[in-house]
Amino acid sequence: MTLSPARLPAGAGVGFKPQHFDDILDGEQPIAFIEIHAENYMGAGGPPHAHLRKLCERYALSIHGVGLSIGSAAPLDRGHLARVKHLCERYQPASFSEHLAWSSHDGVFLNDLLPLPYTPETRDRVVAHIDLVQTTLGRQMLLENPSTYLIFAESTIPELEFLAEIARRSGCGLLLDVNNVLVSARNHGTDPHDYLAKFPLSQVGEVHLGGHDVQSDDTGAPLLIDSHGSSVAAPVWQLYEQVIARTGPLPTLIEWDNDVPDWPVLVAEARAAADVLDRARRTQAA
Amino acid sequence: MRHPKRAVWSAGQQEFAGALLDAGQPVPAALTSHTARTPTKRFAVYRNNIVFGLISALRTRFPVVERIVGEECFATMARDFVVKHPPLSPLLMFYGDAFAGFIATLAPLAELPYLPDVARLEAARTHAYHAADAAPLDPLALQRLDADALVAARIVLHPSAHVIRSPHPIVTIWAMNSGAAELRPIDGEGPEDALVIRPDAAVSVVKLPPGGAMFLKALASGLGLGRAAAIARDDQADFDLAANLAVLIASGAMAAVHPTHDEVTEP
């Protein structure tokens, strides 16, 4: 069957937070799209939907899920998948995305994005889950690369190869989270440039940029935490610029979910991303 | 490929999942890092994320309970609840429906006997907030009905309407601890039944008049207005129909009225 591809505008977007509702609708704002967490909009009505309806009159919408547990060894929760389908039908978003991670086990929702070992078995299972999601939704979904803090001893496939193979076999797009690339690379002592050099950039339907915290692990080595609670760090901007220089403009989301700042601060981050995209456009045109 | 019908977690994944909510368990041997063989701090990041994230969800949902017991006590209760009763759904906004029942089991909180019902009230507020939308009834709609039609009329309540009954003055306690009313001593004050409702954007908490809870319950079950009033009056002698109708109209609790007529029975 034909799956509708993800089609966000190639500009800068922000994650929508209710406290910014009035700011976003105040005249023209320099953003191209907004993104929501799917699970927050799975009530029947009330202010969340009232706000979202108004925002969708003006901006393209990206729906980003955290609860499907695509990396799970268990079958997908059909009830939750039905809720996702209902939400997508209600709002017809430009894009739906989820994570290469699991969050539910034995019926318990663990409220975090948990890592999975990378083996032929888990790869096949993730492909099957994505097939089911895409068939159910009638659209291509974007799969996000994870931020990880540990390695499973049983993993036999490098993460990049794992992701690329999944995208190839399922036909899903990729959501490139550049902050996650940096966080994971630092946490595993690898080179983020290497990861990005081999990343299947032609499959990328959206980019995420966010902030991280720096802590240290048991040996005193740097441990970066994917906290989304601060501005985008300089090394992430650098990696992002390098990606865009290769791909041209891509839809780019500023992801700031904790200690959410006032609107002017958030929009300044979006402007910085938009500047990178504009420079790439001018270079392409030249 | 055929979609797998059952879970096939590897031993490593099972170990990982089992150790996440149990701080007593060691870091699973299946996990490692490029620095330490046993990544204690790294594993702790996941454990902390989960627990703190869920405690945060409970703080968001039960701000008055937290205000009453204090931040430290709430954090302890919440952590205990999270480990014993983790969520069974990714819809975190509804996590904690069982929190009130859990509070009732905590011996140190027995000196706050109203606390479980205050928690139930707060839980109802979340459900009201997310409930389906409906326009409140035009107040004139009831006035247009003649006496017979009014007695037989079926009232459709607003989808967000919830009733919380309590032998304790929970509406007053809630109002005082959410900034909606001034703090004052409450001593030996009697029961209060709450109507929690979101007729438009904001959730309100309304103290129901005597018999109001029974009246609403009867209306919600589909009984005509007259029958519902009779049931309420049987339960509470000082039930005042006019006063109750006024509260329901003013609060936006009525979404529709369906006049019905008694069926003509065959002789």
Topology:
The complex is a heterodimer of chains A (286) and B (267).
Chain A: E1 12-15, H1 21-24, E2 33-37, H2 47-58, E3 60-64, H3 78-91, E4 95-99, E5 102-105, E6 108-114, H4 120-137, E7 142-144, E8 151-152, H5 159-170, E9 173-177, H6 178-188, H7 192-198, E10 204-210, E11 213-216, E12 222-225, H8 234-247, E13 252-255, H9 263-285
Helix pairs in contact in A: 4-5, 8-9
Chain B: H1 11-20, E1 31-32, H2 40-61, H3 63-69, H4 71-84, H5 99-103, H6 115-130, H7 140-143, H8 147-152, E2 154-157, E3 162-164, H9 170-177, E4 194-197, E5 204-207, H10 212-220, H11 225-235, H12 241-251, E6 254-258
Antiparallel strand pairs in B: 2-6, 3-4, 4-5
Helix pairs in contact in B: 2-4, 3-4, 3-6, 6-9, 10-11
Structure description:
The complex is a heterodimer of chains A (286) and B (267). Chain A contains 9 helices and 13 strands. By secondary structure, chain A is of the alpha/beta class. Chain A has a single domain, classed as Divalent-metal-dependent TIM barrel enzymes (TIM Barrel). Chain B is mainly α and 267 residues long. Chain B has 2 domains: 112 residues, no CATH class; 135 residues, no CATH class. Chain B has a 3-stranded antiparallel sheet with strand order 3-4-5, with helices on both faces. In chain B, a hairpin with a 6-residue loop joins strand 4 and strand 5. In chain B, helix 3 packs across helix 4 and helix 6 packs across helix 9. The C terminus of chain B is likely disordered. Classes of the chains: A alpha/beta (286), B mainly alpha (267). Chains A and B meet through helix 2, strand 5, strand 6, helix 4 and strand 8 of A and helix 1, strand 1 and helix 2 of B.
